[in-house]
Design a protein that fits this description.
about 525 residues, mainly alpha, three-stranded parallel sheet, three-stranded antiparallel sheet, 25 helices, 12 strands, RNA-binding
RNA sequence: GGUCCGUUCGUCUAGGGGUUAGGACACGUCCCUUUCACGGAUGAAACACGGGUUCGAUUCCCGUACGGACUACCA
């Protein structure tokens, strides 16, 4: 199997017509191995804290691809750096995936035939493979301490551990097998490094970027197995992807530079025939300014950049997520899906089912996508608006109860129907719309100054009587009756209606007055009007 | 610095050798509405630059500029 592909052939392979003509899409893999005819993808986060929203997007793309192809979506936890491990992060990842509806088929917390799916539980597997690679002549033992390498880095401007420098360093290549064995048996610290041979062009046929070429002479001899016996990302990732029969690697662009090493690893192990196809996603950038979206941007711009909230040790280390902000998972999914991908055409609202159906790796963009919170909000607003009252009420129920509001199902549905057209966040229904659940807290004094006077007060008092004795308490009938009353009194609707609104909800912003009256009910309406008059 | 990746309205993007370069968000105006919002209409707003190739380039190629990622015994 030639590793280096003909560039022209790649153009053909990458053309949409060619790609869409393939069923299943991965012709190469199907051809190369009978066992790999089914798509298997993985989402492999590191439990170093809350899962970044970019990670959620990576998970989403993997999920959509797997679902579309009838494949398997695997969750693997890459916790090989004991120093950066954060307790709770693993649960957070699973909860976040659950919230956005991206449930893995296999993985930590979900079981499966290829476990364990947590890399710290697979230490021996990596060690075995690392030593095997040394036997195969594609890796070697290195005894240089981190301190010794620091010295090298300071001496040389840009020191790299590679085919040039390794001949003057302390490793099994310079020391010989016997001496290396002696040192290892004596308990000396060592790492295993990939032996990158110079003089080769390594081609990566990235499904998003096409043919990407790296010269092996420019590559460093990456550490594969650390002194503590744990593998680095590079080794663990390749070994696991192979063992878990991964067919497509869909990951962030930050991995593109090390993909050449990964290809070398597949080759070194003799696994090139089943090497997965790579797709490197563009990064999500800061809302303003340069660089990729970071945790700091959340606090800086006052926006969520994580799916769920996180409770850190201090207030500063704690933050809310999209869920706490009042987002609907479906809106977040829609927003995220379009951050770097679009199926073509003018549609921009997609359900998960549509996304699964329409998703295609070829339509993923190449350039970084700026995180546009306004757009996210707009999706949320649309989704809340489009939701039916019962479903929305079910989501609002816990928010209402958290505020101590005890209301019937029927009432909550009516309240929700009144509010849903004018909120962006779920939370606003019980916050902005608190007056549907408890008495008015304060009246809009500014408007009152302009409109309230003795004459009006007299008319208003009479109006309360009218409302209190009104038979058919329905919006249309009420409106007609009140407007007739206003006309009879010789005042203008504009003199009374705004005051009626303020008496009922305290503010000039809000749902239609007569509909609000109906939802509140006659008793409560009258009580509020009287309370207003007596204030 | 080196390696690699990228560049269509402010933002997310569609499109692609000949188009009035389309949609969405945000913004302006108007309509609806005696509130706010929803909705509807409408406006302003883009192919980074320079060379090629071509009858013709925003689209293909090269370069420049700018942006990004990587450059750890982190992932």
């Amino acid at each position: 199997m030639p590793l280096v592909h003909n560039a022209r052939r790649l153009d053909i392979i990458r053309s949409p017509r060619f790609l869409s003509s393939l069923t299943p899409p991965n012709h190469r893999i199907v051809k190369l191995s009978n066992q790999l005819s089914v798509v298997r993808v993985r989402f492999a986060p590191s439990p170093t804290g809350a899962l970044h929203i970019g990670g959620v997007r990576t998970a989403l793309y993997n999920y959509l691809f797997a679902r579309q192809k009838g494949g398997t979506f695997i969750l693997r936890i890459e916790d090989t750096d004991q120093g950066r491990y954060v307790p709770g992060a693993e649960d957070y990842i699973i909860e976040a995936l659950r919230w956005v509806g991206l449930l893995p088929d296999e993985g930590v917390g979900f079981g499966g035939p290829d476990g364990p799916y947590r890399q710290s539980d697979r230490k021996e597997i990596y060690q075995k493979h690392a030593h095997e690679l040394v036997q195969l002549g594609h890796a070697y033992y290195a005894f240089d301490t981190p301190e010794a390498l620091d010295v090298q880095r300071q001496a040389a401007e840009h020191f790299t551990y590679n085919h040039l420098t390794r001949t003057a360093l302390s490793n099994s290549l310079t020391l010989g097998v016997a001496e290396s064995k002696r040192r290892i048996e004596a308990g000396e610290n060592f790492v295993i490094r990939l032996k990158v041979e110079p003089g080769r062009s390594i081609h990566i046929n990235d499904l998003i970027r096409g043919d990407v070429v790296f010269e092996s002479s420019e590559l460093d001899d990456k550490v594969l197995l650390k002194a503590d016996g744990m593998p680095t990302y590079h080794l663990a990732n390749i070994v696991d992807d192979h063992l878990m029969r991964i067919t497509h690697v869909i990951r962030g662009e930050e991995w593109l530079p090390s993909t050449a090493h990964h290809v070398l690893l597949y080759e070194g192990f003799g696994w090139q025939a089943t090497m997965p196809l790579f797709s490197h996603l563009p990064l999500i950038m800061k809302p303003v300014g340069n660089g990729k979206l970071s945790k700091r941007d959340g606090a800086k711009f006052g926006i969520p950049v994580f799916p769920l909230g996180w409770k850190g040790e201090t207030a500063e280390e704690s933050f809310g997520g999209f869920r706490e902000a009042g987002f609907l998972p479906a809106a977040v999914v829609n927003f995220l899906a379009l951050l770097g991908w679009h199926p073509g055409g003018d549609q921009d609202v997609f359900s998960m089912e549509e996304l699964i159906q329409l998703f295609s790796i070829e339509h993923i963009g190449k350039s970084g996508a700026r995180f546009d919170y306004e757009k996210a909000k707009s999706f949320n607003q649309k989704y809340i608006h489009a939701m039916d009252n019962a479903a929305l009420a079910a989501l609002v129920r816990p928010l209402a109860e958290a505020k101590g509001y005890q209301v019937s199902e029927a009432y909550l549905e009516k309240a929700v129907s009144l509010m849903k057209e004018r909120v962006t966040f779920l939370t606003e229904i019980v916050e902005t719309g608190y007056y549907l659940f408890e008495p008015v807290r304060e009246y809009d004094e500014e408007t009152l100054q302009k409109r309230w006077n003795g004459d009006i007060a007299a008319v208003f008092a009479e109006l309360i009587e009218k409302v209190a004795t009104f038979d058919l308490f329905k919006a249309l009938e009420l409106e007609e009756a009140v407007k007739t009353f206003i006309q009879e009194k010789g005042v203008k609707p504009g003199d009374i209606l705004p005051l009626l609104r303020i008496a009922l909800v305290g503010t000039m912003k809000g749902p239609a007055v007569f509909e609000t009256m109906v939802v509140l009910g006659q008793e409560e309406t009258v009580a509020r009007l009287k309370a207003f008059l007596k204030r």
